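The pair is quoted verbatim below.
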Amino acid sequence: MSKLFFDGACRGNGTRFARCAIGFVIKTDGMVLARVGRRAPDAQTNNQAEYAALIAGLARARALGVQRLECCGDSLLVINQMKGTMKVENTKLRALRDEGRRLAAQFERVTYTWIRRELNADADAMANLGMD
């Protein structure tokens, strides 16, 4: 099973001056298939950036032909909302969750695993690179 490590970052979280970015790394058997860090111009909050990173990572994994994917992130909110164990009350986040689910449905199998921040250092580094 391939692994997608994703992370979002946002400076000025929730303000009209927010500057957000995404980062993700896709690995199979320890080999890096993709490493991406870039701005997320549509995101205005950290949670939106986290979802944008997951969505971009899912899309890239699908384009690479991945069929079974474990999505690993340090956002408990995104992980639990994607699993369906936490309600999504924010309409923008609900739309992002729904987009993520539509993409995930194209895979043979997708799972979601919360990991501690220090275990997500590669994706975090890519998100910070995208911010600068």
